[in-house]
Design goal:
The protein is α+β, with helices and mostly antiparallel strands. It is built from three helices and six strands, in the order ααββαββββ.
Length: 132
């Protein structure tokens, strides 16, 4: 499967309005690069509200799916203060922020044009992502 699309329902990236011809070309180029450069794992990273870099590591084989449908992330990461403590009572029924009650999940959508191989971690690269 290529990252340009799939049969059936529209991908999460398409439903968010970010998947276009340019992104499809970037995604296909990214998948070729992973294969050609022997990259085995990819760190999907994003900056939180305080500028702290957070992320998840995927195997290279999981990246095509992540480009289309995102990577799951718990919403409490969006509610941390600068001491890394959860600032709002997200696990309580009367949670302060709409949509964050009971620690709902968010999705990270990687930018296929942002791949950077990590010279200090052989076989590993980094991709910037945006939470949705």
């Amino acid at each position: 499967m290529t990252a340009t699309g799939r049969a059936g329902a529209a991908s999460f990236a398409a439903r968010c309005g970010v998947h276009d011809t340019r992104r499809a070309m970037d995604a296909d180029a990214l998948l070729r690069r992973l294969r050609d450069e022997g990259i085995e794992q990819v760190r999907i990273a994003w900056g939180d509200l305080h500028g702290v870099l957070r992320g998840k590591t995927l195997t290279a084989s999981a990246v095509a799916s992540a480009l289309q449908d995102g990577v799951g992330m718990v919403s409490t990461l969006m509610l941390k203060d600068t001491s890394d403590r959860t600032a709002f009572p997200v696990f309580e029924r009367d949670a302060v922020l709409p949509g964050c009650g009971f620690a709902n999940n968010l999705l990270l959508l990687p930018d296929p044009a942002s791949l950077v191989p990590l010279p200090w971690a052989p076989g590993t690269a980094w991709l910037r992502a945006q939470p949705w």
